[in-house]
Structure formats: C-alpha cells, structure tokens
Design a protein that fits this description.
This protein has 8 helices and 13 strands. The chain has 298 residues and is an alpha/beta fold. It has 2 domains: 1-122, 3-Layer(aba) Sandwich (Rossmann fold), CATH 3.40.50; 129-298, Nucleoside phosphorylase domain (Rossmann fold, 3-Layer(aba) Sandwich), CATH 3.40.50. Bound molecules: uracil (URA).
C-alpha cells in the first residue's frame, strides 16, 4: 500500500476512537456492530445492479456450505451483502456513482483491517459488469488490462479551474493472467484487453441512437477502429476510475471482468434476447467465481 496516499488525517481518528466514520451511502458507520463480522473480509466484489449482488452473495454462500449472509439495512443507493469473507456491493451506473461506492468501501476496508497495510494488501477487489465489445461478439468476457478514457488517456479529474489530477488506471497483470488461467475450460471466450470508460452511455461512446446525436457514422467508425487498433476490446463506464483509485492507495490485487452485450463495430442498440442477456451476465459471474474458488477456497 502507498501509505502516503491514504487520507490518514481523517482515517486515523477512526481507528483511535476519536470519531466515527459514517459510510453514508451504505447506511452504516464504523461504530455499527453489524460490521464486526466483516473484519475477515478477503475480497470486495462490485457490480452495477443490486439484483446481481444478491445473486452473487447467494451463490458464494452456497459454495461455502450455506454461510450466513449479512445484509446492510440501507438499499436505496447501493445493495450490500457479506458472506464467507466476501463483501458484495452494487455501485450504480457510471463513474460519479461508482466513485462514491468505491471511496466508502476503501474507507471501510481501512477501518475493518485496523489500518494494517499488510492486511489491506491481501484484499482482492473486482468489478463484474457489462460492456460493449470492440471487435468482439456479444457473450465474450473481457478481463481488463488497462482502463482508459474515450481519448485513450488514463483516468483523470478536473482540479477545479487550475489543472487535472491524473491517475494510473492500469490493472495488475498477475491478476488478470490468473483470472484467465482459472477459466481455461469455459464454453465462451475469455480475453484480456484495454477497456474504455465512457462518461456517458450514448455520446461518449459515440452512439448514434441517443436522444442527442453529435457523431456521424464515419466519425463513430473511425473512433471505434482507432480504439481497436490501440488494443481496446470493450467499453463500459467505471473501470478507469476504479483502477485509478485502487492504484492510488496501492492495492495490489484487483480486476474488472465484463461480458460484452454486443459488438459495437456492428451497431449501437442492445438487441440480445433476455435469455442471451441472462447467459452473458451469468458468464461473467462464472469467470469471477472460478477465480474466487481457485484463490479463496483452495
Ligand atoms: N455498457 C456500456 O457502458 N456500453 C455498452 O455498450 C454496453 C454496456
């Protein structure tokens, strides 16, 4: 961990009892007894939708002999479950929403591990989601090697009017390689590649089917081809931020696993059937759980 990038000014006071940390959007605080069983957390798994989080927690519990599932009481923003060493939390859609979830979860992990940097090094983080494929058909699972924004540059935020904060949004190679190795026998393709995080589903992903249309067929195809030529394999809305923040604190183990819903070189609308979408979504879960089984259950 990079202790110099951790907000010790605020967080150390939580450890020494000076003040509580309120994880407002999760509806819990560091003083809640509900968090006590989570001290043993080994992995934090994030996904966009709350329904997915409940399914993941149920599945992980069944793989762990029906382990007890702890549910956080507040569910109007994010849905959260904990079972058998894994904290599952939804993050909503897009980087503004997901950054709130991630920052509160990072603070929570700091509290749960009592600020022990070696213990925090051991925590695995992942986002499991959906994406648009770039040159890949729907149903492919992409394990991200590097998060980039729509201009192929790393994640960054405006520093007010004076400049830009840049973040390292690469993903650790040892982890994406291990995830792919744990999934050598699936009946669907699992590949690694760069992933664009768009700030918008329509405009910053160069779609022509939004209410607003700023691109042409030519400029869209030119952008998608440029992405493909530069190693991008899918487009979603959270990964570059997630890698940027986790790298900032120095977490060594994290990944993003996204199924593709369509091939953006062939269109903009998601026309897969509900059955196909269900299978796509299940497959990214299969990739996650094959990896979790190989690391946490063996
Ligand atoms: N999610 C995205 O952000 N883009 C897509 O094309 C599909 C899912």
């Amino acid at each position: 961990m990079k202790t110099e990038n951790i907000n010790h000014e605020f967080l150390d006071g939580v450890l020494d009892g000076g003040h509580a940390d309120v994880y407002y959007h999760f509806g819990v605080s560091s003083e809640d007894a509900l968090l006590e069983p989570l001290r043993d957390v080994k992995a934090v798994i994030m996904a966009g939708s709350g329904g997915r989080i409940k399914e993941f927690a149920d599945h992980w519990s069944s793989l762990n002999g029906g382990s007890e599932i702890v549910a956080f009481p507040k569910e109007d923003r994010f849905v959260t479950r904990y079972t058998a060493g894994v904290l599952f939390a939804s993050h909503g859609m897009g980087m503004p929403s997901a950054s709130i979830a991630l920052q509160e979860l990072m603070r929570m992990v700091f509290f749960l591990k009592r600020g022990d940097l070696a213990a925090m090094d051991e925590v695995f983080w992942a986002r499991v989601g959906t994406s648009g494929g770039v040159g890949l058909p729907g149903g492919t699972v992409v394990v991200t090697s590097e998060g980039v924004m729509a201009d192929l540059k790393p994640y960054r935020l405006l520093q007010g009017g004076s400049g830009t904060y840049w973040f390292d949004s690469t993903f650790p190679a040892a982890v994406y390689d291990a995830i792919i190795a744990a999934n050598s026998h699936t009946d669907f393709e699992v590949v690694s590649g760069k992933t664009v995080a768009g700030n918008e589903f329509f405009l910053e992903q160069f779609r022509l089917d939004g209410a607003l249309r700023l691109e042409t067929e030519d400029s869209k195809m030119e952008w998608l081809q440029w992405l493909h030529d530069n190693g991008v394999r899918n487009i979603e809305m959270e990964g570059a931020m997630m890698a940027g923040y986790l790298n900032h604190w120095g977490f060594p183990k994290f990944a993003m696993i996204c199924c593709t819903l369509l091939n953006r070189l062939e269109g903009d609308q998601v026309t897969a059937t509900p059955e196909q979408l269900h299978k796509f979504s299940e497959d990214s879960g299969v990739v996650l759980f094959n990896y979790l089984k190989s690391t946490l259950l063996s």
